[in-house]
Amino acid sequence: MTLVAGVDTSTQSCKVVVRDAASGALVRTGRADHPEGTEVHPDAWWDAYQRAAQEAGGLDDVSAVAVGGQQHGMVTLDESGAVVRPALLWNDTRSAEAAEELIRELGGGDRAAGAKAWAEAIGSVPVASLTITKLRWLATHEPANAAKVAAVALPHDWLSWRIAGHGPADGALDELVTDRSDASGTGYWSPFTDDYRLDLLDLGFGARPKLPKVAGPGQSLASTPGGAGIGGGAGDNAAAALGLEMQPGDVAISLGTSGVVSAISPTPTADPTGMVTGFADANGAFLPLACTLNGSRILDAARSILGVSYEELGALALQAPPGADGLVMVPYLEGERTPNKPHATGAFHGLRLANSTPAHLARAALEGLACLLADGLDAIVRLGLKVERLVLIGGGAQSEAFRQIAPTVFAMPVVVPPPGEYVADGAARQAASLVLGELPHWERAGTAVYEADPCPLVRVQYAEVRDLTHDRDRD
Questions:
Q1: How far is CA 463 from CA 330, 352, 368, 374, 469, in A?
Q2: In which element (H, E) is residue 203 found?
Q3: What is the rounded CA–CA span in Å between residue 246 and residue 291?
Q4: 131: part of which helix (H) or strand (E)?
Q5: Within 13 Å, how many C-alpha atoms sit on residue 443's CB side?
Q6: Is position 61 annotated as part of the catalytic site?
């Protein structure tokens, strides 16, 4: 049996899976938490990886490993390879103003022209999540730190580099490796040309630090000290697409810290509205994606308000009718990325005596989450992509109530695969391709399909009030 390992270095934790390369059979797993917050020193990721790998029984017997990870974060290194400052994560919104500056600057002062120019250049319009906006923030607010930056990496690049045996003592910045899926979320790599846009890096940062080499699909540009191949890795959503073996026509809806709607496309996309980011995938195709800042934490907020467990929240939600008798939750609890309202707040609308019950509030929260994701799905459809199958994954997808409510909002059946670590599994599948010469097909059992009559009223109510939410920077 040839073993491979997949690593998911996510916002919340590090997960390691060890699988048989040919069959995908799970051999062992490990997990370790990451610190909370939107600013984290990368050393915490290395510590978590070591703990997770140890819990998984060690990786000395694997033939290859690959890392999937949270996208966009800014990891800055000096000439020695030491971290310059704690990494800013994808969900750190302090660079929202920088994003607006960059859009207008590329458009010669005109925002609409700038948005179009960015979309045509990199497939995406800058928002606070993209690495380039964080570099602009660093140059503006911490010029002394900016002056020390010799290389910029993403979270999965940096962890792969450490797994390869590099670190702050050797200064091996030329050995940093990324992949096209994660590079496409930086703001200075183009899925149209498969190359870095150094002119945009100049615009954003005013300098040209070293950038990771970009590994192609199935390519290994590094190895562990023990000789195991290291895959190029992937951004978390691209890794999940590998784990799900997604094909054109498939759309994944992933409910984690964020909510993500992503599709496989044979051609690159460009959306000047900024609703859809035109990323590359990890298999030579493309991954148009709509990402919300708010995901399963909407359920956490509703639980906190009501003082109930996840199971109790779901049971309450199913006691109220579709549409919650007019009660609507707009769930911009941490600002929002899709739509781009970084300083917005959440709100309840339509509160009356008749719907002032725990059941109605629970229903409104789950429907608000579904409507937020449905807006992202609509944006992908407007780009001309066909939706033949909806696949629901992520921690929030384990909510039985959300599974039942989702088809009423999305107006189509929802496929729920068995619970799994699909980002880590996708990374493991990429690692398997290094030893097998191609991506293997791994059978999965236990997929369920949820169907329900559509209830258009839910989205109509939501559309009537979602833009009433106050955004301090725009008003």
A1: 10, 19, 10, 11, 12
A2: helix 198-205
A3: 18
A4: helix 131-141
A5: 2
A6: no
Residue keyed to tokens 């490796």: 177
Instruction: Tell me how far apart the alpha carbons of residues 237 and 291 are, in angstroms, rounded to a whole number.
Output: 10
Is the link from the previous residue into 339 a cis peptide, with omega within 30 of 0? yes
Q: What are phi and psi of 124, to 5 degrees?
A: -140, 155
Strands 62-69 and 3-9: parallel
- For residue 7, the tally of other CB atoms under 10 A from its CB is 32
Q: Which of 78, 236, 250, 375 is catalytic?
A: 236
- Determine the 3-state secondary structure of 335 from DSSP: strand
Q: Cα-flanking dihedrals φ and ψ of residue 68, to 5°?
A: -105, 145
Separation CA 295–CA 274 (nearest Å): 19
Q: Nearest-CA neighbor of 99 among 148, 73, 136, 133?
A: 133
Collect all residues with Cβ–Cβ distance below 8 Å to 90 and sequence separation of at least 6.
11, 70, 71, 72, 73, 129, 258
Cα end-to-end span (Å), the chain: 61
Return the SS3 of 472: coil
Cα distances (Å, whole numbers) of residue 87 to 71, 73, 261, 454: 12, 7, 25, 43
Of 117, 67, 91, 278, which Cα lies nearest the Cα of 184? 278
Of 402, 362, 392, the C-alpha closest to 262 is: 392
* Runs of H (alpha helix) within 356-421: 358-382, 400-410
Residue type, 393: I
The residues pairing with 9 across neighbouring beta strands, listed in sequence order, are: 14, 69
pLDDT tens, N- to C-terminus, the chain (475 residues): 999 999 999 999 999 999 999 999 999 999 999 999 999 999 999 999 999 999 999 999 999 999 999 999 999 999 999 999 999 999 999 999 999 999 999 999 999 999 999 999 999 999 999 999 999 999 999 999 999 999 999 999 999 999 999 998 899 999 999 999 999 999 999 999 999 999 999 999 999 999 999 999 999 999 999 999 999 999 999 999 999 999 999 999 999 888 999 999 999 999 999 999 999 999 999 999 998 989 999 999 999 999 999 999 999 999 999 999 999 999 999 888 888 888 899 999 999 999 999 999 999 999 999 999 999 999 999 999 999 999 999 888 899 999 999 999 999 999 999 988 999 999 999 999 999 999 999 998 899 999 999 999 999 999 999 988 766 544 4
